Amino acid sequence: MRKSFLLTALCLTSLAGYSQIFGKRVDGPVQINGYSIAEGDTLHFGRGTMPSGNFKYIAQPVNVFAGSAEMSLHRSFSGRTLIVKDLRESKSKRMGQKVLAVVNPGGFNYAVELEDAIATGEIVAINSRRMGQASATVASAGSVADELIKLKQLLDAGAISQDEYNTQKKKILDK
Question: What does the pLDDT average to over 45-55?
């Protein structure tokens, strides 16, 4: 009986660390707001849009096994990057039908509501390493000046090369 209890407790503790992101797994890249996103791509985070600075559209879902509530990604992830583990298509009363990217910033899975995160600037760039090509796509959120500022921040942070910066800057200015 005691071994059974310990095994159950160990399993539940393990499950607490890996929140299940519900939804049907999506194979291949998805198109969101003109951007192609696939497993293995790098998401570059801007700033959270909640009053606290936390991310509204990047959250760890409710974990019924651990009894934890939904938890937004902390504001300390502003300016950082995470790799897309997989993509899910999810439907719920709260969110409607959405495509989610699953990321893991250190022991816990988080769901990224891609369309809203890109539209609000919580995601400022997506780097793709598919087919041997390195490309950075800057999300279009805000004015041209805002886009140029975000692009310069990515260059300064080393997230994109000088050539990628020049290419994206030209695209922004030619709009």
Answer: 92
